[in-house]
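@channel sequence for tomorrow's demo:
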Amino acid sequence: MITGQWKTATIALNGILSGEVDLGRPYDTLLMAIPTIDSAQVNIKVAEKIGGTFQDVHITEGDGTSAVVKTDIGTGGITWVVPLGGFQFIKVQTSAAQTGGARVFRVCGCRS
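structure tokens (generated this afternoon):
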């Protein structure tokens, strides 16, 4: 497995969405160290280019339905492995505003 460099994605105080992160190249998988946060779900948004239109990552279930890739992590303090599907540009999003302070997520792309 080949891993990229660790980068940071910061969600500002009272925010729900980080700034854009360039992982350096397209990756299949994302490793994410989730800090302690205000209780929320976390998901990843991806784009094809810098400044592109960011969309949720979806995964197809066994029954053919599609669902947003997200984790119900509560208050964080965990590491999450996320299917990335070959994207290079990401944003991190929480389902609730982070009123306890800015949140810094560490992210790293991986590929086989």
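heads up for whoever presents: The radius of gyration is 13 Å.
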